[in-house]
C-alpha cells in the first residue's frame, strides 16, 4: 500500500483492526476532494485484513465489494477505516466496513470474501 500510504494499522478500543491514512494533495481528485479510489482501496485493505484473521490467516479473495460514498473529505484529513465480520460459513466471509473523517462517515462497504484452502 505504498502507492496511497503509508496506511497505519492499529487496534481500536474493541480489539478490532483500525487502519488510518493521512491524506495529502496526492490523494485529491479534480474537485479537490479525496479520490473515491483512495477511499475504496482503504476499505479493501481493512476488509481483507479482518477476513484474513477470521479465516485463521488463510488467503482470502474478494468475491464482491459494494461501496457507498456518503460524504466527502478534503486532503489533509486523517481517514480511519474499520471492518467487522458479520457472518462466516465454511468458505465464505461476509463483512461490513466504514471510513470516517473524524466522527463523520465518508464511505460504507459490504463485502463477500472467499477463503482459499490449499489442496493437500
Automatic annotation (TrEMBL):
Residues of the Thioesterase domain: 32-104
InterPro entries for this protein: HotDog_dom_sf (IPR029069), Thioestr_dom (IPR006683)
UniProt entry tagged with the keyword Flavoprotein: no
Protein keywords: Plasmid
Entry's Gene Ontology molecular function annotations: thiolester hydrolase activity
One Pfam family here: 4HBT
Keyword Membrane assigned: no
Superkingdom classification of source: Bacteria
Protein name, UniProt field: PaaI family thioesterase
Organism from which the protein derives: Celeribacter baekdonensis
Amino acid at each position: 500500500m505504498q502507492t496511497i500510504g503509508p496506511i497505519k494499522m492499529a487496534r481500536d478500543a474493541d480489539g478490532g483492526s483500525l487502519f488510518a491514512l493521512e491524506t495529502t494533495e496526492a490523494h485529491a481528485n479534480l474537485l479537490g476532494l479525496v479520490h473515491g479510489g483512495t477511499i475504496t482501496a482503504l476499505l479493501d485493505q481493512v476488509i481483507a485484513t479482518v477476513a484474513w484473521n477470521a479465516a485463521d490467516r488463510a488467503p482470502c479473495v474478494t468475491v464482491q465489494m459494494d461501496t457507498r460514498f456518503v460524504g466527502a473529505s478534503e486532503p489533509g484529513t486523517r481517514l480511519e477505516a474499520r471492518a467487522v465480520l458479520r457472518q462466516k460459513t465454511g468458505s465464505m466471509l461476509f463483512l461490513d466496513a466504514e471510513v470516517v473523517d473524524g466522527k463523520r462517515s465518508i464511505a460504507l462497504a459490504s463485502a463477500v470474501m472467499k477463503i482459499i484452502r490449499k489442496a493437500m
